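SAMPLE LOG
Freezer: B-3
Tube label: C17
Construct: single chain, 200 aa
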Amino acid sequence: MDTDFIIKLVTAIVAAVGALLGILHFTTTRRSVGYQNLKTEIELLTQSIAFHEAEPDYNKFLIDVRKEKISSLVFGITIPNADLERVYAYYKKAEGKVTTGDIARAWFFRDTRAEQLSFQLRGSHKTQYIIGLLFMLFCMLSAFGGLVALIFGAKGNEVFALVCVSLFALFNTGWICRGLFTAAQLGKLEKERHRIPNDA
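STRUCTURE (predicted):
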C-alpha cells in the first residue's frame, strides 16, 4: 500500500468517526432534554387530573392524554390508547421473552390486519426482510473473500477498499434494518412458542 492511500484512509476514518460522535452527542442531548420535558408534562397532567375530579369528561380526556405520554416515555414512541391494551396483552403473554424495547423497534412492522398484536411479517415487510438478509450475506461473502485474498498475498488498494466497504455496508444494513429483524424474531417466537396468539 502506498503512503498517500493510507493517509487518505486514516483521514477519512477520523472524519467519519468525528462526525459520528458529533451526531451521537447531539441526539443523546436532544433525547435527554425530550425525556425531561415528557416527565414534566406527565407530572402536570397528573396534577390537572387531581384538580378536575369534579369534571368526569374532561378528567377522562386528561387520563387518555397521560396514557399516551406514558407510552412515549416507556416505549420511546407514542402508542395510541386504542393499541395500549393490545400491547399490554402481548407483553404479558410473552412472559419475559419480549422487552418494551423489542416492541418499540418492531412496532412499525406489525401486522395491522391482525386483531391481536402480531409481528408476523407479510407483504412488503417480508420482501424487505428477505432482501436485507440476502444483501447482508453478500456483504459478508465479499468481506470474507477480500480478507482471504489479502491473507494469501493479494496486493492492491482495491481489495482492501472492498473489505472496508463490505464491512461498512454489512454493519450499516444491520443497523438500519434492526427494527425489521426484531419484528422477524418476534414473529418466530409467536410461531414457536404459541404463547402469543396470532390472528392471521
